[in-house]
Amino acid sequence: MKHSRVATKLSSFAKSGQQSMKYSCQFICQTNPLFIQLTYFTLISFAGYEALKVLKSQDKSNTMKDLDLLFTSVSASTVSSMATVEMEDFSSTQLWILAILMLIGSEILAGNTLFAPCLRYMVWTFKKITGKEECHFILQHPKAIGCRHLMSTRKCVYLVVTVVSFIILQTILFCSLEWSSEALQEMSSYEKIVGALFQSTNARHAGESVVDLSSVSSAITVLYTVMMYLPGYTSFLHNYEDPYSKARERDNSRRLLKDWVFSQLSYLAIFLMLICITEREAMTTDPLNFNVFSILFEIVSAYGNVGFSVGYSCKRLLKHDVYCKDASYGFVGKWSDKGKLILIVVMVFGRLKTFNLKGGSAWKLR
Question: Which residues are bridge partners to 312 per DSSP?
């Protein structure tokens, strides 16, 4: 009798679990993709924060602030590569956690700017190997699949040409302006070219750097700022608006909201003003480090999920401070807690920028 009751309870528990999974899957499928991705990045960021907090750092006497751990976790999960503390302070286990968070996010070319061409090439290869008609249909009608990463051959070619052109442009400018600079003087010609190519490839997303960006030419930092701002699928091909897209809008008020919502550039301007307010004291006492362009560079880097930083130099202090220490981990590490919190919002906002690419269509600059 007891065994039958246990079996009945287990059976009912299994059925309720299946129903819960079914309803959860239906809820996820019917929910707005923005809500899904926002929830996803929020959960993995806080999970990473909890893991970093539980694990001990390299220097046990140096206790890291909770905000710095949260900032590092959000930076890793959104693949922004920004830091407010030295990476050497983290233990090996903590570094593995950060690596896992970055792998969950995706990286550089194949996982970012060239993801669509790589995906189409994989489908084409699979079609050649298997000969399945489904693959042929996907290649011929990518829009019918409903996946934004599946593009036509023409769009993929334009995208590849754009990405390669940007890398070549940055490499040429970097080599022409920094070839004889102090940062590259100990490198051979081959190492300089490889370093310039590595730097240029990382400018769109990954944020790894071979030189101190505060020492490079202003023209290069401006170019990097533009590169960081551009979305991953920027191409020379003009994507004409689908004439039937507006007809498919179910709600006119929803379409009106999309038209009148701020553009991405407006949001960056708002973030810049907010951070200038939170850092106004430092901008007054330390204007050479805390200038508007350095703050803008950091914001665009966070928004583009790149991670470049001009850093912080004690040599630029107006009054020499014997206790001052250069920050190799990033300029944001010297910001106030309010400024760091705003930049956390910028990183998450930048990771979800695909949902606002058409924002501000009602705002015309004439």
Answer: 327
Banded pLDDT at 88 (limits 50, 70, 90): low
Buried b / exposed e over 154-183, threshold 16 CB at 10 Å, is ebbebbbebbeebbeebbebbbeebeeeee
Residues 322-345 as b or e (16 or more Cβ within 10 Å = b): eeeeebebbbbbbbeeebbebbbe
Give the DSSP letter of residue 263: P
Dig out the tokens for 229 from the structure: 């701002």
Q: Give residue-wise pLDDT tens across range 97-133.
A: 776 776 565 556 666 778 788 888 888 888 888 877 8
Work out the angle between the directed axes of helices 337-351 and 33-54 (0-180°, nearest 10).
130
pTM across the whole model: 0.59
Looking at residues 140-153, what average pLDDT do you find?
82
How many residues are listed for the chain in this entry?
A: 366
Question: In angstroms, rounded to a whole number, what is the distance separating the alpha carbons of residues 282 and 288?
Answer: 10
Structure tokens at 57: 């750092």
Q: Where are the beta strands (DSSP E) in the chain?
A: none
Give dist(CA 328, CA 212) in Å, integer: 9
d(CA 359, CA 354): 10
Give me the amino acid identity at 249: E
